[in-house]
Amino acid sequence: MATLLRSKLSNVATSVSHKSQAKMSGMFARMGFQAATDEEAVGFAHCDDLDMEHRQGLQMDILKSEGSEEGGEPPMEGDIHYQRDGTGPLPPSASKEACSELSGQGKPKITAWEAGWNVTNAIQGMFVLGLPYAILHGGYLGLFLIIFAAVVCCYTGKILIACLYEENEDGEIVRVRDSYVDIANACCAPRFPTLGGRIVNVAQIIELVMTCILYVVVSGNLMYNSFPNLPVSQKSWSIIATAVLLPCAFLKNLKAVSKFSLLCTLAHFVINILVIAYCLSRARDWAWDKVKFYIDVKKFPISIGIIVFSYTSQIFLPSLEGNMQNPKEFHCMMNWTHIAACILKGLFALVAYLTWADETKEVITDNLPSTIRAVVNIFLVAKALLSYPLPFFAAVEVLERSLFQDGNRAFFPNCYGGDGRLKSWGLTLRCALVVFTLLMAIYVPHFALLMGLTGSLTGAGLCFLLPSLFHLKLLWRKLLWHHVFFDVAIFVIGGICSISGFIHSLEGLIEAFRTNAED
């Protein structure tokens, strides 16, 4: 009887596992075009984490069902998207065996072209609308920085992936780590085995939340400038946008959101083409004499953060490379995606700035004539609102996993009940996060300043500083002298740019905050 019961439970668990993988992994990994079409591409990387966590939870159900033969209670079945174990995580050895056993069962892989599509959407999203404003304060040096940032981010992406691999006893190069957090923890071990991961998680949360704030800011800004005659302020438009976004607190998965991602991205490319076409139609009036070699010392550091933020993709690269059919094509994929991004961003920024010169605004579509501005901006607002759930959902999951579901190391009680459903106070925290993004957007409604601050703080850290530092720490014995030189140079230059941009952006934000508080 016990053997029959165990066989039945195993068959049921296997069936559910296959269904789960078909729904989650199949949807996000095999269909690469829907995997990470958001600007920060958090959908693909994060859904991979959720898929592993889900499969780990299913394995826990199997172990619990085996234990129930001896008199224990059978496991409760909850929503498959939020299946959680209420008693704590698996032991390290069992967890690794379970994950490795289940992860190899029919997990779909993506091609180099699909991986390139994900990277392209990560580094060529709607935040390129702020690049002409960077040229306004940087001139030709701003154009050079767009090229320089592309080269550096491409290089740091490659060395970050190199940190995932080590040489085994047989002299073979094998993958021993799976994520950015694993790399960070390996660098801080053995004295502080979890410190590096916590730093990366904090940086990731800051970047994701700031991305959400930017979506609310840009939505309010675009709507206000599209309908200036309406008696509705930019703050009011931001409140309306947040009311539309409040249902994000009830999200259980990204399935519904991902359906719109590809359409939104294609619409954004069409909008970029329309802006460039309009600028080309005014080519006779281009102000070449306005593009200078000198820089605005006070505002150019903010431009550095804007440019760096537009290239951030390192946080999801380990997951992306691990899901490629042929990981050896990763370097080639990084080359052509960053070359294409560099060319398109440089041309877009230069052409737009030449068209409006000193009148260039923080969001370039605000410079368009009123006849087409409203239509273009409405499409952009729709894209921003549909893109908001991706970074929001990723930020929520990182917070829940690190603060509420980290086993004995969790700071707070589990926010999920025994049936796997979200508790009321957990839902309240989600709503509070949405409201927090609104408050930040209301008190600091400056797209360029917020983008520059985020790029200088987390963007430079995740793209410049940490990859070069980790590369030196983990592989310094095998590095050639020019690799050491590049890593040290990137770390020093990135540190200087990060500190400078952060200070100037913070000063601008404090001044803006005071002005809005007085009003």
TrEMBL record:
One of its GO terms (molecular function) is glycine transmembrane transporter activity. Pfam families: Aa_trans. The keyword GTP-binding does not apply. It catalyses: beta-alanine(out) + n H(+)(in) = beta-alanine(in) + n H(+)(out); 4-aminobutanoate(out) + n H(+)(in) = 4-aminobutanoate(in) + n H(+)(out); glycine(out) + n H(+)(in) = glycine(in) + n H(+)(out). The chain crosses the membrane at residues 141-165, 205-224, 260-280, 300-320, 332-354, 374-399, 427-444, 450-472, 484-503. It is found in: Cytoplasmic vesicle membrane; Presynapse. GO terms for cellular component: cytoplasmic vesicle membrane; inhibitory synapse; presynapse; vacuolar membrane. Residues 8-21 have a biased composition (Polar residues). It is a multi-pass membrane protein. Keywords: Cell projection, Cytoplasmic vesicle, Membrane, Neurotransmitter transport, Synapse, Transmembrane, Transmembrane helix, Transport. Residues 109-505 form the Amino acid transporter transmembrane domain. Antiporter that exchanges vesicular protons for cytosolic 4-aminobutanoate or to a lesser extend glycine, thus allowing their secretion from nerve terminals. The transport is equally dependent on the chemical and electrical components of the proton gradient. May also transport beta-alanine. Acidification of GABAergic synaptic vesicles is a prerequisite for 4-aminobutanoate uptake. Belongs to the amino acid/polyamine transporter 2 family. This is Vesicular inhibitory amino acid transporter.
